[in-house]
Design goal:
Belongs to the aldehyde dehydrogenase family. By secondary structure, the protein is an alpha/beta fold. About 35% of the residues lie in helices and about 20% in strands. Strand 12, helix 9 and strand 13 (about 320-330) form a beta-alpha-beta unit.
């Protein structure tokens, strides 16, 4: 008996050793970053070499397999299997069923919904650094921006928790005695959320947290190039729902491309659809062109750092990135010289290095767009002040670029390129500057730098900026969650995040209740 046991143990030991060798060999053979010890932290987010890209209460995905790449070195991180159209249909159905449960569980009880959102915020807090690292790894923005983006989702959750105790309509005075007039707000139902690569966490958070406390369920399709972030965030949210015995389909997720985006856009079962960026579904959602104006009385010590931050932050890939810097002719040359000098001092490098201020572009295609835009600017009369080159290093790195000398109506100036190119224009009068601001088809964010209070209020008034975000003496980037975020014209008229943007996630009813024994009719009509 003892001999038999010894032989069994020996064989088992050899088997374990063989398996250990096999595991080491497999890791050595894998070219994926997630299999390397340096990136083992990715597994803390529940990620593996191959990941399911569909969640509707259960994880699945049998569609195309896509590989996510790191923009800093163009090496593969991990793989995700996207949704098929059949799986999209299944997810829609489960989402609609989940809404029935969510609406009943939290019926007339927004604070209960707020409690779930509070728990989501707490769960995100616990993994804020590792999730922020994933954003940096997969999107390419520097580490501090990646963590800051997750923090924004956390902040919106906190905001939504408070909002859950305040949403509702007023009781209005009725002209009829014995009647009460009430404005009632109810959830719209299923909110579809399609987000862009540049903010793969925050934009979903803006929509998700507010939509949930309003009583809606959510279906999310993240950018095709940041699927791992979508999966990781969904795993965190799904765990909270599971712990509260709620259907996971309250927060569904489908990774996919144009077919899924098109389906969501056309699907009448999606009661409200939030688009950010380009959805690749044939119906382009306009990117945003931002403006900043510097008048002759501006404090240049505010202008220069603001211009640099807003134009090179996130390597020029923010939706609020400054694209056009309009300078009064009296300060034009001075500001250009100082901004160009500051550009040369921007620390470019590894996004995970805490000292880095400027990382890579998200994709190789973005690098091509960068080069094409510079060439077009030169052809249209622009002068290259600094930058203009692809950097000689691994990854999608390009130099932050300043171009002057172009007319305000040059086509390249009014064409969105999601890259770090700043077009500097020279103006003479206030009227000229304001007109240039409003002549483009997009209108998300704008800012002026001036000490003239009359000019400030003209800028904020009906003949001033027509953008959704109108700033004074601060950058175009860095909006706070307490205010409604969104643009005008081709940028869209919807709002996300703060203020009363919660109203778009709900439907409004005016309710009249007769609690008397009389029946006063409209227009004084009486039946004898």
């Amino acid at each position: 008996m003892q001999r038999c046991l010894t032989v069994t143990v020996a064989r088992h030991s050899r088997l374990l050793a063989h398996r250990a060798v096999s595991v080491r060999q497999a890791a050595a053979m894998s070219s994926l970053l997630i299999s390397q010890p340096k990136y083992s932290w990715l597994k803390e987010l529940g990620l593996s070499e191959d990941n399911h890209g569909v969640y509707n209460g259960t994880w699945g995905g049998s569609g195309e397999v896509v590989t996510s790449y790191c923009p800093a070195n163009n090496e593969p991180i991990a793989r995700v299997r996207q949704a098929t159209m059949a799986e999209y249909e299944e997810t829609i159905q489960k989402s609609r069923e989940a809404w029935k449960v969510w609406a009943e569980v939290s019926r007339a009880n927004a604070p209960k919904r707020g409690e779930i959102v509070r728990q989501i915020g707490d769960a995100l807090r616990k993994k804020i650094k590792v999730l922020g690292s994933l954003v940096s790894l997969e999107m390419g923005k520097i580490y501090v921006e990646g963590v800051g983006e997750v923090q924004e989702y956390v902040d919106v959750c906190d905001y939504a928790v408070g909002l859950s105790r305040m949403i509702g309509g007023p009781i209005l005075p009725s002209e009829r005695p014995g009647h009460a007039l009430i404005e009632q707000w109810n959830p719209v139902g299923l909110v579809g959320i399609i987000t862009a690569f540049n903010f793969p966490v925050a934009v979903y958070g803006w929509n998700n947290a507010i939509a949930l406390i309003c009583g809606n369920v959510c279906l999310w399709k993240g950018a095709p190039t940041t699927p791992l972030t979508s999966v990781a965030v969904t795993k965190i949210v799904a765990e909270v729902l599971e712990q509260n015995n709620l259907p996971g389909a309250i927060c569904s997720m489908t990774c996919g491309g144009a077919d899924i985006g098109t389906a969501m856009a056309k699907d009448e079962r999606v009661d409200l659809l939030s688009f950010t960026g380009s959805t690749h579904v044939g119906k382009m959602v306009a990117m945003m062109v931002q403006e900043r104006f510097v008048f002759e009385d501006a404090d240049l010590n505010l202008v220069v750092p603001s211009a640099v931050f807003a134009s090179v932050g996130t390597a020029g890939q923010r939706c609020t990135t400054t694209r056009r810097l309009m300078l009064h002719e009296s300060v034009h040359d001075t500001v250009v010289e100082r901004v160009a000098k500051a550009y040369k001092q921007v620390r470019i490098g590894d996004p995970w290095d805490r000292n880095t201020l400027y990382g890579p572009l998200h994709t190789k295609q973005a690098v091509e767009q960068y080069l094409a835009a510079i060439e077009k600017a030169k052809q249209q009369g622009g002068t290259l002040i600094c930058g203009g080159k692809v950097m000689d290093r691994a990854g999608n790195y390009v130099e932050p670029t300043i171009i002057t000398g172009l007319p305000h109506d040059a086509s390249i100036v009014q064409t969105e390129t999601f890259v770090p190119i700043l077009y500097v224009l020279k103006f003479k009068t206030e009227d000229e500057a304001f007109a240039w601001n409003n002549e483009v088809k997009q209108g998300l964010s704008s800012s002026i730098f001036t000490k003239d209070m009359g000019r400030v209020f003209r800028w904020l008034g009906p003949k001033g900026s027509d953008c959704g975000i109108v700033n004074v003496n601060i950058p175009t980037s860095g909006a706070e969650i307490g205010g409604a975020f969104g643009g005008e014209k081709h940028t869209g008229g919807g709002r996300e995040s703060g203020s009363d943007s919660w109203k778009q996630y709900m439907r409004r009813s005016t309710c009249t209740i007769n609690y008397s024994k009389d029946l006063p009719l409209a227009q004084g009509i009486k039946f004898e």
